[in-house]
């Protein structure tokens, strides 16, 4: 297919709003042999979208279609795509490309590639400008598309891609050249334990949620430490943490001092 016109919601400049009155048409170059075309079903919003919309990192190019926590339904695949078929539910996080040739790319660590291409606000290999998931559809190389399992609702899939992309964002901004991200190191550490240990999860945002679920799935004892009591029920009942501490309650914090193996 020769190019595909999609409609997105774009920030035009700052201050500007991103909504359905800010429609912006852009054309993808033709679908390559390894490209996956999908209709966007859901797209998360997180603070890095706001940073980019407001040009807070000083490198936003307008018009900008944000959105890097994208879930959609496959409507077309290139001739060499083997991992996906039409009607699969798929997700895309904050990167859509990398050089494919460096040591990092060749060892499945594309997120550390010096030529990583972000989902939006970046020049793609073909010279086009990447635009994000607040769009009717996206075209992404199969290596940067993930499968959303059937058991996961597409809407919940956004949350999972968000946690992953937040991990990648921290790689980009904090320690892109310093090996695995904080989240990856934590998962590797928990995996390496030969017995159940007492794990503390600090804060119950998107990444914290996933941390609780992963640590519990590995059989560890999980304590959530939060700044207020607001998320107690969510932590203990909804996602199955074993213990909940409020960090501003110094008596409680004292009582549990040195009780955790890993935070
Ligand atoms: Zn590379
Ligand atoms: Zn995010």
Automatic annotation (TrEMBL):
It comes from the Eukaryota. GO terms for biological process: lignin biosynthetic process. Gene3D superfamilies: Medium-chain alcohol dehydrogenases, catalytic domain, NAD(P)-binding Rossmann-like Domain. Residues 32-150 form the Alcohol dehydrogenase-like N-terminal domain. InterPro entries: ADH-like_N, ADH_Zn_CS, CAD-like, GroES-like_sf, NAD(P)-bd_dom_sf. Keywords: Metal-binding, Oxidoreductase, Zinc. Its cofactor is Zn(2+). Coiled coil: none annotated. GO terms for molecular function: cinnamyl-alcohol dehydrogenase activity; zinc ion binding. SUPFAM superfamilies: GroES-like, NAD(P)-binding Rossmann-fold domains. This is Putative alcohol dehydrogenase superfamily, zinc-type, GroES-like, NAD(P)-binding domain protein. It comes from Helianthus annuus (Common sunflower).
